[in-house]
Amino acid sequence: MAFEQSNLPRRYNSTLFTTLSANTYSIYTGAPDSLHAVPQPDKFTNINSLQKLENAACIQAYGEQFVSSWLNVLVVLNLRNHTNKYYTYHDPLTAGSDRDLWLCSAQRHTQTPCNLETLLANASNWQLNVNIETDRHPNWQAVPVEYCLAEPFQPKCTVEISFSILLTVVMCNAMKVICLISMLLIDFQPLVTVGDAIASFIDVPDNSTSGHCLISARDIERGRWKLLMRRVLSERSSTPQRWEPHTYRWFRGASPRRWVCCSLLCTVSWSVGLYLVFTGIKGSSNAWKFGTVTATALIDFTTRHSVLSNVMIANIAQLMISFLYLMYNGLFTCMLLASEYTQFSVHRKPLRVSAPKGQQRSTYYLELPYRYAVPLLIVSGLLHWLVSESIFLARIRVFDHEVPVDEIATAGPSINACGYSVMALVLVLTLSGVMMITLWGSGFVKANGAMPIVSSCSVAISAACHRIPDDVDAAVMPLKWGVVDTENSDVGHATFSSREVGPLVPGQLYA
Predict the structure, then answer these.
(1) Of 87, 103, 324, 354, which residue is 20 to 30 A from 193 by alpha carbon distance?
(2) Other beta carbons within 10 Å of 199
(3) What number of other Cβ atoms are within 10 A of residue 203's Cβ?
(4) Least trusted range by pLDDT, from 1-15, 116-130, 215-229, 491-505
(5) CB of 55 within 8 A of CB of 150?
(6) What's the CA gap between 484 and 501, in Å, rounded?
């Protein structure tokens, strides 16, 4: 059930996804005095619709790997008596790194580093490497660009649904419904809460833990229980323990293993998130757009993978968040259980159980006090949504400009990729950081009470629940944990009781 719960959001997140459009286009060069002599004018949808773009605007428009708002372009050079000619062809399916940009042709031939940022910073000095033939001999020169004449194109985007993933979601939900109905039909009383365990052990004491009322969950983890049991079997009697009061913190309610696993997974997730943020900062400025699929905010290596592969890549973060939430919730549950348990040594109150009887109380609907459960549920939902806006599935449909206009809507293959948003990633890191600081800070809160921390360890709970014989209906009454009257005046006994109990005395032996 836990595995299913952690995987279901991943499939939900990829059932619906957005498609972008990317155009192939041709680049032509020309001189200001021969603008109307465009080679192959039939390749332009409307030669009269060309828009003039200044250098910076032209670099920005055609500097993307996937150009969706423009088609063919005529680059006007600062060169007189230059015959307009075909320059090159751009196909987003085969486009490579920044050094392969046609915009960087002048820098490429001089081995000068070139990328979109450097071009925009020196847009007024932008140059193209052009072959100026002299007596039919090639003569490549870097020629300044005056402006561009670009053909606008209305981007085509759609929202698509994956029926295979949707079918998987429906089947998983159906399995969950079947499991829930089966649980309702089975007649049994599980020990769901610590209150259930206390009530059960008070009604039916476990003789194997008799005489060890001060044993804690940490003692069990350290192997002390095995040593005590060997001594009990050899001597046929219990070994009293001396009460030494301690100031317990909430973090003692969970095992060190749980804290280490949660902290390690958080550190790994944070490191990956920071890497993506710094990578996005160095990349396109469009990556800062919140949760928006843009052609320049795509993870490069994902453009070579299938839809299913990209679904897995896009939702790895969702899987990490789901496991982190389970650990996070588990740590808070353990700490709050420890806090509520130790309060029995200070205040008399009824047990909180799954099926209340007498004066017993019912469990919390969300297993935690509402002042913790409701904020945690809201923050968890917000975090999942932010993660879905940080890395997401995107499909790019390539439209070939050489296809007739009336057929362009159905032409071209598709590219599957993952998009990202630096802004959403920053918000994810900020929110998750606040959550972890809150968790670690809560761990140092002092437990209100003076009794061993048992967490959810059944052995330690059983040892603390050996009632006095005449306190028969104690489980359904308000209880308090403390010292009860016994026949042995040298060795005391502490347990849950509906009657008056006394405080533990430091240095006194208890069994």
Answers:
(1) 324
(2) 26
(3) 14
(4) 1-15
(5) no
(6) 5
Q: Among the residues of 65-159, which ranges form H helices?
A: 105-109, 116-121
- Which one-letter amino acid corresponds to residue 248? Y
Structure-block tokens of residue 462: 């059983």
Sequence-distant (6+) residues with CB within 8 A of 271 are: none
Neighbours of 161 (CB within 10 A): 9
User: 495 forms bridges with which residues in the sheet?
Assistant: 482
The DSSP output letter for 66 is S
Over the stretch 39-76, which tens digit does the pLDDT of each residue have?
555 566 666 778 889 999 998 888 877 788 888 888 88
pLDDT of residue 406: 46
Q: Which residues contact 218 (CB under 8 A, 6 or more apart)?
A: 252, 453
pLDDT at 447 over 70: yes
Question: Amino acid identity, residue 323?
Answer: F
- Ramachandran category for residue 205: left, alpha or beta (phi over 0 → left; psi -120 to 50 → alpha): beta
Measuring CA to CA, how many Å separate 151 from each of 25, 61, 87, 127, 329?
10, 11, 16, 21, 55
Contact by Cβ (8 Å): 501, 482: yes
Residues 13 and 385: beta-carbon distance below 8 Å: no
Alpha-carbon distance of 287 to 394, in angstroms, equals: 14
Report how far residue 278's alpha carbon sits from residue 270's, in angstroms, rounded to the nearest whole number.
12
Q: What is the pTM of this model?
A: 0.70
Model confidence pLDDT, tens digit, residues 135-151: 566 677 888 888 998 88
Give residue-wise pLDDT tens across range 154-198.
887 777 777 877 888 888 888 889 988 887 787 767 777 888 889
Q: What is the pLDDT of residues 276-302, one digit of tens each?
A: 787 766 655 555 666 666 655 677 777
Pairing of strands 140-152, 70-77: antiparallel
Q: Tokens at residue 486, please?
A: 């016994």
Mean of all residue pLDDT scores within the chain: 78
Cα–Cα distance measured from residue 200 to residue 353, given in angstroms and rounded to the nearest whole number: 10
Provide φ and ψ at 90, rounded to 5°. Answer: -115, 125
Task: Provide the residue type at 382 as one letter.
Answer: L
Report d(CA 475, CA 49) in Å as an integer: 85
Q: What is the pLDDT of residues 215-237, one digit of tens each?
A: 888 877 776 555 555 554 344 44
